[in-house]
Amino acid sequence: MRSLVKPRLMKLGLAAVCAVAAVSAVQAQDGPSSDQKAIEARQAAFKLINFNWEPMTLMLKNQMKFDAALVQKNAARIEALGPMIPDLFATDTRGKAAGVKTRAREGIWGSAADFKAKNDDFMKAVAGLSTAAKSGDEKAFKQAAAAVGKSCGGCHDSFRDK
Ligand code: HEC
Questions:
Q1: Mind listing the pLDDT tens digit for each residue in 75-134?
Q2: Pocket residues for ligand 1 (CB within 6 Å)?
Q3: Considering only CA atoms, which of 57, 59, 77 is closest in space to residue 68?
C-alpha cells in the first residue's frame, strides 16, 4: 500500500510546488511597477501628513477646541514626514505610469529646484508650528497653522492637479 501511495503524494507535492512557482512568476510579471510603487508611496505619505494636519484645520476654524499637546504631537510627526517628500519624488514618473492615477504635475521633474524650494517653505512653516505649539499660545498657533496651510497650497497650486 505504502509503495503505491507515496509516489503519488510526491507527484502531487511536486505539482503543488510547480503551481506556486507559476503563480509567483505571473505575480512578478503583473505586480506593481516601480512607477506604481513610487506613486503609491508618495500618496501614502501625503495621506499621513493630512491625517496629522486635519485636526489643526478644525482648530483653525474653531470646530475643535485648541489642544496644544495634540498640535505638538502632530506637528512633530509632520516635521518627520516632510523631509521625505523630495525623496519620494526621486522616481520620475512622467508619462510612464499608464493606468496609475497621479495628480503630480510634470513640472516636479522639470523644475526640481522650485519643487524643493516649495518643500523648504513648507518645512519652515512646520517648524514654526512646532514652536508655537510648545508655547501653548492659541493665537500663535493659529498664525503658524495658517502659514502651514498656505505652504501646502503653495506647492499644490504649482505642482498638483486639482
Ligand atoms: C512640495 C510640495 C507639496 C507640499 C509642501 C505638500 N503637498 Fe500635498 N501633494 C503634492 C503633490 C505633488 C501631490 C500629488 C501626488 C500624486 O498624486 O502622485 C500631493 C497630494 C496630496 C494629497 C492627496 C494624497 C492622495 O491620497 O493621493 C493630500 C491629501 C495632500 N497632498 C495634502 C497635503 C497637505 C495637508 C500638505 C501640508 C500640510 C501638503 N499636502 C503639502 C505636493 C505637496
A1: 999 999 999 999 999 999 987 666 779 999 999 999 999 999 999 999 999 999 999 999
A2: 39, 42-43, 46-47, 49-50, 53, 85, 102-104, 115, 118-119, 122, 148, 151-152, 155-156, 159-160
A3: 59
